[in-house]
Amino acid sequence: QVQLVESGGGLVQAGGSLRLSCVASGRTLSTYALDWYRQAPGNEREFVARISWIGGGTNYADSVKGRFTISRDGAKNTVYLQMSSLKPEDTAIYYCHTVVDKQDYWGQGTQVTVSS
Q1: What digits encode the pLDDT tens for the residues 30-60?
Q2: C-alpha–C-alpha distance, residues 95 and 81, integer Å
Q3: What is the DSSP string of 57-94?
């Protein structure tokens, strides 16, 4: 079992910044990578960013490249998503995700709202 708990969402004006956190617990030693996804009202859940737990390799959706940065703190079992130059279209619920032993685990999500 893996538990993922997100925090850090909120309301911000366009052009502003937020940092999301995802704390992982449970069988985290088996976690290969952690992802951030987001889902806006009426839209499908979409990939945002990924970081490898070992090595720290990252990749991003084109829509957030250059604005968002994913990072991790191994000692705290925490993954961060630093979001800058936020746009109204970034408004969504942001979810932390991982796969362990072919099973998907999701956090409960944290709401990010960007006002114009």
Answers
A1: 678 999 999 999 999 999 999 998 888 999 9
A2: 11
A3: -EEE-TTTTTTEEEEEEGGGTEEEEEE-S--GGG-EEE
